[in-house]
Amino acid sequence: MSEQPTGSTSNVRELQNLIFRECLLSDEAVLDIVAPASLIRASTDVSISDAELSRLTYRAGKARALREFDRCYLTQLIQRTQGNVTKAAQLAGKERRALGRLLKRYHINYIDIAEGAESCVTGSSASHHS
User: Fold this and answer.
1) Does the global pTM surpass 0.85?
2) 27, 65, 93, 126: which has the fewest C-beta neighbours closer than 10 Å?
3) How does pLDDT run across 13-32, given as a tens digit for each residue?
4) Are 74 and 102 in contact, with CB atoms under 8 Å apart?
5) Distance between CA 87 and CA 114 in Å, rounded?
6) Which class does domain 46-130 fall in?
7) All structural domains of the chain with their residue ranges
8) Which residues contact 83 (CB under 8 A, 6 or more apart)?
């Protein structure tokens, strides 16, 4: 009897196939790979218990989801630009000062992220209130 692949095993296999395909099709020395939506969803899904959900109003739940999205998006953006805030602002379609204010609001240290010290973590512990 064969086992079904677990979520993480199938994600690894999907990523390996993506990299292999891009290597074969690319003429560039450096690959610029966009993660498939299924891998992005798997890494950014926010789980919330039924008990916690029942205590939240719609407005509070929406605000929490937006904070978590902002924090994850900004963290991944800064990782992608290796801490270059100007480049991150350009990619996000934001003014550099506006992006800087968002990074400050969410206590995101772009230097730590560029050095690999911080990653996107979802859940209530990752939310920072200003």
Assistant:
1) no
2) 27
3) 777 777 777 777 777 777 77
4) yes
5) 13
6) mainly alpha
7) 1-45, 46-130
8) 110, 111, 113, 114, 115
